[in-house]
């Protein structure tokens, strides 16, 4: 298979469709803590606003990163600020 055929094959059909509200609901469900759960709405809102100006691949990357941060049990928002204040 040539590279062009591989590209055409990979991009030929949408994987799935979901709404921003459905994405927010699922990320809220995946949240590892109350703090992360409270961040979901703002993160989705910001991503949604940027999406109109970004390539599809970059929007997908942003969504995947959101899922990673929201589900990460070791992620502690604000820890960097606390460490900085102690120095």
What does this structure look like?
This protein is mainly alpha-helical. It has one domain (18-86). It is built from 5 helices and no strands. It has helices at residues 3-10, 20-30, 34-51, 56-71, 79-86. The longest helix has 18 residues, at 34-51. It is globular and about 50 Å long. The termini are far apart.
Alpha carbon gyration radius: 17 Å
Mean of the pLDDT scores?
83
Count of structural domains? 1
Q: Pairing-aware structural class of the strands and helices? A: mainly alpha
Secondary-structure element string: HHHHH
Described by strand count, sense and barrel closure, the largest sheet is: none
Judging from the principal axes of the Cα atoms, what is the shape?
globular
DSSP strand count: 0
Q: Ends: how far apart?
A: 57 Å
Binned, the helix content reads over 70%
Report the sheet-strand fraction. Answer: under 5%
Note poorly predicted spans: none
Topology of helices and strands:
Elements: H1 3-10, H2 20-30, H3 34-51, H4 56-71, H5 79-86
Q: What are the key terms here?
A:
87 residues; mainly alpha; globular
Q: Could you write a compact summary of the structure shown?
A:
With 87 residues, the chain is mainly alpha-helical. 70% of the residues lie in helices and 0% in strands.
């Amino acid at each position: 298979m040539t590279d062009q055929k591989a590209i055409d094959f990979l991009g030929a059909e949408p994987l799935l469709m979901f709404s921003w509200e459905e994405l927010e609901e699922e990320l809220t469900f995946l949240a590892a803590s109350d703090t992360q759960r409270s961040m979901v709405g703002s993160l989705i809102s910001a991503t949604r606003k940027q999406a109109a100006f970004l390539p599809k691949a970059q929007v997908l990357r942003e969504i995947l990163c959101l899922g990673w941060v929201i589900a990460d049990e070791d992620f502690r928002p604000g820890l960097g600020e606390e460490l900085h204040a102690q120095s």
